[in-house]
């Protein structure tokens, strides 16, 4: 049976037989980089068509149905269109920052992929402070948005960027606290260890109600952090035309678009790792037959299945709820989510100390 | 009690969000009914609502007769000069002069389909048609004469 870790190991063995250690490392880095970029390209295509189909079905429409079978090649055609378009830089813009911003958005998304465990023993970089790394890097993404909004020299862009700044800075708190509750339960910041601790049950089941509260807070906070509806004040197409990327066109716009979807994928992957057991299969107590069938499904399918389930959940939010006003948004965070997650983390800590979880 | 209200708020919010998600989830899973029109595909069976306003037309009966008296009420009612009524004088059999229309010129490119001309018409001579595929390559084709050549006013319409 094939698996990602076997493929990676055989490549590593072949490389280390053919080249010396330095070259092996360099070539492996290049392979990892290419793999990340191609994963992003595929994710962009898949998630855009998924978003459009999900939105269409939820609004009793058909969605794209012209290009390819059932319209599935629509996002490919859109990408081609964006590639051949001119990337304009407005006259009054700060040219250097304006052109730098989309790349920073993209680089942040790529850096965040490093500690994620895609399958059993298949991880780019299993660093021992994975959770801290993720929360540290993900807060850089606001800089690219602020940079884009500031450098555009456009009132809509600036408004969108400032809103996004206020939003991300406040929602990071409750996202961090809900992530922290899983760290408290596991006792480790390493993502692979967090996954391994869920071998006998996912944290959302093992952690009783506090884990469920943490999960809900996490989902709300990351929806806000990725600037998606109902928290898409930074873009708010009905009030700010396109918010921080109003002035962008062509491939630079596409990079922002891709970074948004990549961020959605990453936060969902982290949510799946922390709360839904990452690549761990679903097990019920001691039903050996059932558990064996579940083990037979490859771990990568488990991981991507859970991630796509969470992505679907976030899309479901987007196409159901209306956009919040900025004061409602900050009220929700500072008056509701933050106190709730603070009390919740106390409960989780008590639970972890008294060993009430399974 | 503040705390009770607070907790009630939280649960009320979750409940109302769940209600909304249940509705969209229902639509997502019951992908049978489609409310949009599949326009170029269903061109032959297209069913437009009664109130749809496509362009102004003047109905003629089988004797090539219309109901327009040439009173220019529609021209006066039009907010942006879309309609131009050019009148002439007919000689009735008993030797009297009678006002009638020579041409009723309608500029489709200026029309906003506001329906004011149809409401202003005292003799119901014009109405809104349901055609909407108006694009042409030359804008002069959008200037239309509504009364057909050789048509005259219907008997009994004053």
Textual characterization of the structure:
The complex is a heterodimer of chains A (358) and B (158). Helices cover 69% and strands 1% of the residues of chain A. Chain A is mainly α and 358 residues long. Chain A has one domain. A two-stranded antiparallel ribbon of chain A has the order 1-2. In chain A, a hairpin with a 2-residue loop joins strand 1 and strand 2. Chain A is globular and about 65 Å long. Chain B has a domain of 93 residues: 2-Layer Sandwich (Alpha-Beta Plaits). In chain B, the strands form 3 sheets. Chain B has a 3-stranded antiparallel sheet, with no helix packed on it. A two-stranded antiparallel ribbon of chain B has the order 1-5. Chain B is of the alpha+beta class and 158 residues long. Chain B contains 3 helices and 7 strands; from the N terminus they run αββαββαβββ. The model of chain B has no long low-confidence stretch (mean pLDDT 85). In chain B, a hairpin with a 5-residue loop joins strand 3 and strand 4. Chains A and B meet through helix 2 of A and helix 1 of B.
Tell me the number of structural domains of chain A. 1
What's the total helix number of chain A? 14
Topology pattern of chain B, helix = H, strand = E: HEEHEEHEEE
Mean pLDDT of chain A: 84
Distance between the termini of chain A: 32 Å
Quote the average pLDDT of chain B. 85
What class, by secondary structure content of chain A?
A: mainly alpha
The percentage of residues in β strands of chain A lies in: under 5%
Care to count the β-strands of chain A? Answer: 2
